[in-house]
Specification:
mainly alpha; 3 helices; YrhK_domain; transmembrane; YrhK domain-containing protein
């Protein structure tokens, strides 16, 4: 029983070390990764504003422009869903990258 407890503690410490490493690396996160996802986020925000602006202008006119306006609002609304998705993908990608980096370092020792 004591052996199982020790093994479990060692695994917990290993996971803790891995998490600590990942969190430290996330604090120093590579500017390369940040630039890519920041650019994606900015492009998404720009297009989002453009779709809502154009959709609003389309409402000044008669059909079929109003249908186009509604369509642009739907596209813009979908892009609102992309905003948190971009952040989540960035977070998962970076954490996985640093976790794999940690595992490689540990296997090399």
């Amino acid at each position: 029983m004591a052996v199982d407890t020790n093994e479990q503690e060692n695994r917990s410490e290993g996971n803790s070390s891995r998490e600590t490493y990942i969190n430290d690396q996330m604090q120093k996160h590579s500017p390369f990764f940040r630039k890519i996802y920041h650019t994606l986020y900015t492009i998404n925000d720009f297009l989002l504003g453009l779709w809502f602006f154009l959709g609003s202008v389309c409402f000044y006119f008669e059909e079929p422009w109003r249908v186009i306006g509604v369509t642009l609002f739907v596209v813009g609304s979908f892009q609102f869903l992309l905003r948190p998705s971009i952040r989540l993908v960035h977070e998962f990608h970076a954490r996985r990258h640093y976790g794999e980096e940690y595992d490689k370092q540990q296997s090399g020792q």
